[in-house]
Design brief:
The protein is an all-alpha fold. It is built from 9 helices and no strands. The longest helix is centred in the N-terminal third of the chain and has 24 residues.
């Protein structure tokens, strides 16, 4: 593409994106278009690549609740290497768990389609479908167990019982082991 990038921006991009060459190529293309021929700077990387990191949080959440250990561990490593805090990851897992529980309850009361999406507060239809799929695969008991494990992991991190990386890896395994296989 002929784009130029500062060494600092290249290092930052590598740290944020990790080893996924597909994502890296996509981010470089996006940065090249954004900078319109000028050299890519650190600020450009920070401005555009944060969206890729946010998407990876949702990939982690999906992998955990899909019991896909390999993908969950890969996304967790990527996020932690990229500077995401263990507490931030716990918050996102908690949010998804809450959405799944709420979706189960709404489905039980006959709420469907656009009304379900609105009640869940989700902007996109595909998000609502994803939560519905997860809600149908888990029993309420499994979700309550996952919630207790999430709270325990959060407490373990905040009290220093475990460091964030270890507590999150344990949580991923514990929730995933109890998740239904699809």
């Amino acid at each position: 593409t002929g784009a130029a990038i500062t060494p600092g921006a290249a290092t930052l991009l590598a740290r944020l994106v990790g080893r996924d060459l597909w994502v890296l190529a996509s981010e470089i293309e996006k940065l090249t278009l954004y900078t319109e021929g000028r050299r890519i700077e650190d600020a450009d990387v920070r401005a555009l690549t944060s969206a890729a990191r946010e998407a990876n949080i949702f990939e982690l959440v999906d992998a955990v609740f899909d019991a896909d250990h390999a993908r969950a561990e890969s996304r967790l490593e990527f996020l932690l290497r990229g500077g995401e805090s263990p507490t931030g990851i716990i918050v996102m897992l908690h949010r998804q768990l809450r959405l799944i529980l709420l979706c189960q309850e709404l489905l039980r009361h006959g709420v469907r389609d656009r009304a379900l999406q609105q009640r869940l507060g989700l902007a996109w239809e595909f998000q609502a479908r994803r939560v519905q799929d997860q809600a149908r695969r888990f029993t309420r008991r499994q979700l309550e167990d996952a919630y207790r494990r999430l709270v325990a992991a959060d407490r373990a991190i905040k009290t220093g019982l475990y460091d964030g990386d270890l507590a999150l890896n344990m949580l991923i395994v514990e929730i995933g082991t109890r998740a239904p296989v699809h």
